[in-house]
Amino acid sequence: MTYIVYDLEMTVRRKKGQIAEIIEIGAAKVGLVEGVPGILDTFQAFVRPTVVPTLSNDTTAFTGITQDDVDAASRLPEAIAAFVSWIGPDEYFLCAWGPDDLRQLLQECRQMQIDTKWMINHNNLQKMLSKVFKLEKHQQMGLKAALEMLEIPFSGSHHRALDDALNTAQVLVKLYDRLSFRRNKPAEEPQTESEVVYKTGHFENLPFAALSGLFPPDSDQ
Asked: Where is the Exonuclease domain (predicted)?
């Protein structure tokens, strides 16, 4: 069994009606080496947005991802195919910090008719940490605060997918013996269409479901 800890970066939404699109996928593969958990491999891919191909200044300032980065990248179907190939054939748990990346991923994949069967055994490490430390109901700790509490130094840059995935993976490694992972299927996850994905200061990202409103029902687009 391996553990795929992933993180997404999206275009920044600041106004109602704007669309958030995935522009980077980062992941770390965690497994046991002689009985000891550790990071075995990493994955990183930029993703070229298609609804709004030009990145806003806010997106670049927030993530550090440039227009050149995404212009040279594949579209989401190709990026997902590369990601799934990297995950490999072995059984795995798919892990993220919080529920938001899964919502975004499901929304975009469903909208673009990308197969979601690979999104199995998804676990929310943020929620799992809250259970381990018996935090109050609905109290969810941010990744930075979790790292500080566990005395894990943050490495890399905030709001870059691979760096956030690696830091999240360090939390999994540290708490490995205290976490209980669950098996599930993508169909069991809610198709949320209006929840805020995350806020940091005055920036926010919202789910991709708003894309459906851009095209009339009979549109061929």
From this structure: 2-181
Range scoring the smallest mean pLDDT among 70-74, 106-110, 201-205? 201-205
Find all residues with CB under 8 Å of 154, minimum gap 6, and list them.
Answer: 144, 147, 167
Q: How many whole angstroms from its chain centre is CA 218?
A: 31
Instruction: List the beta bridge partners of residue 203.
Output: 200
Report d(CA 32, CA 44) in Å as an integer: 22
pLDDT tier at 192, thresholds 50, 70, 90: very low
Tell me the β-bridge partners of 93: 3
Instruction: Give the span between the Cα atoms of 141 and 128, in whole angstroms.
Output: 11
Q: 38 near 23, Cβ under 8 Å? A: no
What are the pLDDT digits (tens) for 46-93?
999 999 999 999 999 999 999 999 999 999 999 999 999 999 999 999
